[in-house]
Amino acid sequence: MYSSPENMQSQFYGPLVNVWMERIRAAQASKSRFDDVGKICNDFYESQKGFMWKSKEYFNGQMPEPRFAICIAKAFEFVAIYGPHLFWQYADRSVTSQRQLELTPDLFGDPNDPEVQQAAQQFMAEDQADHAYHEFINEMMSIYLNWSQREQPGTLMQHGMMAIIESLIKGMGLLWPETYVMPGSEDVYTRLNYDSVDNLLIDPDCKDPLWETAGYIVRRHFNPIWQVERKFGLERGTLDGKGTAHSSESMARQNASQETIGGRTFDCIEWYEIWSKVGVGPRTNKLNHHMVDMFDDAIGDFAYLCISPNVQFPLNAPTHNYFGDAPAGIEDIKQMFRWRCAGYGDDFEIWRDGRWPVSWLSYNPVDKSPWPMAPLSPGLGELIAINVLTSSYVDQAWENRKRIIACAQSAFSQLEEALSKDRSTAIVKLNDNIHGSINEIMQMLDRPMAQGDQLQAMQILSENFNRRVGLNELQYGESRTQIRVAADSRQKTEALSIRPQKMSGDVARWMTDASQKEMFLAAMRGEGQSLSHLLGTVGAQHWDQFFEDLDINQFMRESKASVAASEIRRPNKERDTANIQSLQQYLLPMLQSFAQATGNTEPLNVFLSQMGEAMDMHEP
Prior knowledge:
By secondary structure, this protein is α+β, with helices and mostly antiparallel strands. About 50% of the residues lie in helices and about 10% in strands. It has helices at about 5-30, 30-45, 50-55, 75-85, 115-150, 155-170, 225-230, 250-255, 290-300, 330-335, 380-400, 410-420, 440, 450-470, 485-525, 530-550, 550-560, 565-570, 575-600, 600-615, and strands spanning about 95, 175-180, 190-195, 200, 215-225, 270-275, 305, 360, 405, 440-445, 560. The strands form four sheets. It has a four-stranded antiparallel β-sheet. The protein has a three-stranded antiparallel β-sheet with strand order 3-2-8. A two-stranded antiparallel ribbon has the order 1-11. The longest helix is centred in the C-terminal third of the chain and has 40 residues, at about 485-525. The protein is flat, with a radius of gyration of 34 Å.
C-alpha cells in the first residue's frame, strides 16, 4: 500500500504517534492533582528548609520568609514508623492449586457394585497421582519464588521498601515484574522491580480505582540515545537529533572541551511504552482505516507500543521492517506488538489473566478515579500551619533575646563601655554632675513575652495531624496517662492497631498480586537448566517437562501464589513466646509420647523450631 518507509511514516505512523502523544498529554493532565499533592507531601518528607516560602504553591509566594524557616519532620516520622511496621522481613511465598474437589466412591455409582468400586479406585488413584504431581510442581515454584526475592539485584526487600515508602508519601507504590540476565551469563531469571509512580500514566477515561475501565497504561522512560537504539535494534544514528535533554555526562564532557552552547546536542531521549486494551490505534477518521483494520485483525485489542514525541514511528515496529527483501508478515506484526515486560523486556501476555503488567499499592482509594489519596494529604493543612507557627514562634524568641536599655545621654558612653566588656560584673562610673536616681538615669525596657496561645495552637494542630494520619503516642513508646486496668490497655491497643492492620493487609494483597505475576512470568520464561543449582537435576527436568508445553491459560486458573500479612510484618516475639510457653505444658508431653510410640519426631521438631524462633534461639 505504501511505496516507501517515508511514505508509510508520513501517512500512517506519524499520525498514529501524534494521536498517542495527545492521549499521553491528556493522561498527564488528569494526573496533575495527584502529582501536585504528591510533590507537597514529598517536600515535607524530605524536610527541605524554607521550601514553603520559596515556592509560589504556598501563600501565592507572598508570605515573607522568616529568619528561621523551619520544617517540622512529622512526615518523616509517619513514614519511619509505618514503613517498618508494614514490611519488616521477607515473606514466605507459597504456591497452591485452586482445585478443591475431593473424589469419593459414591460419585461413580453404587458403592456396593464391584465394577463401580474398581472404576472408582482407578479414577481416585489417577486423581491422587495427578494431585501429588501438581503439589510437587507447586513446591518447586514456591522454592523458586522464595529464592528469587533474595537473589534479584537489589533484593525484593529493598525494592519493596522503596515502593512502600513512596506509597506512604505519594499514595501509590509500584512493582513491575521483569526478567533479567546476570552479566556474563545467559540464564534468565525473574524479579519485581521498583519504579517511581511519577513515571506512570493511566487512561484519563478510567473512572475506577481498580483500573477495570482503563483502556491503556503508560510508563515514561528517559535514556541515552545510544541505549535506546541498542534496545530496539535500530541502526546507530537513527535517533540522532531526536533527543530531548542533555545527560550529566554530556554536559561535563562539553564543558571540559569548552564547546559553545549552540554546538551542543541532546543525547538523551524521552520515550513511552504503552500497554493497550483498545488496539494499536484509535478507531478514528484521523488515521488510515485500511491500516487500522489490518492491525486490529492481526493483533486484536491487546497491543504494545513504544513511542517518542520526536520519532514518527513506533520504536518497537520501525517502518523499515515492512520493506526490503523480507518484509514483515502477519506473525511478525503480532510479535512486534505483543505485550512485554516493562522496559521492552520479554513477552508477557498477562492480559490473559485480566491483569496489567504492574502491581500497585495504595491505601485510600478515591471514588471514580484511578489515583488514590496520599495518606499524608488529610494532614497537610495542619502540617503547613504547624510550620508557619513554629517559624513565627522561634523568630519571636530570637528577637526577644535582645536587651533594650534606655539611659540618659550623659551616661551613654559609660554604659556602652561597661556592657561591651565580657565580664560577669560591670562597674559604671557616673558623672557627679548627674542629678537624680539611678532609675531615672537608666532603665531596662521589657519586651512582650511570646504568646502562650501560639504554643497551644501548635499542640492542637500536632494532635489533629496525628489523628489524620494515624500516629499515636504509643507508637513512640510514650503514654501521657498511666493505664491501670488491663481491659483499658487492650481496648486502646485494638483501636490503635485497626489502621496499621488494614494497611498491612493492603501490603500483603499487593505482594500476593506481584508474586502471582512473577510466578506466571517464571512459568513462561524460566528454564530448568538455569535452576538445577536450586532444584537439583531431577527437579530441573520436571520443571522443563511441566512448563515447556504448559497451557498458560489453564495454569493461570489453577495456581495461586500467596503472601500472608503476618509473614511480612515485624514479629511480636514477646507475644509468640508467651503463646508457646502457655501451650508447652500441654503439647510437649503429647508430642514426646507420640514420637516415642511411632518413631515420628517431625511434629516435635516443628514445635521446638517454633519455640526457638519465638525466643530468637537459632541453631549454630
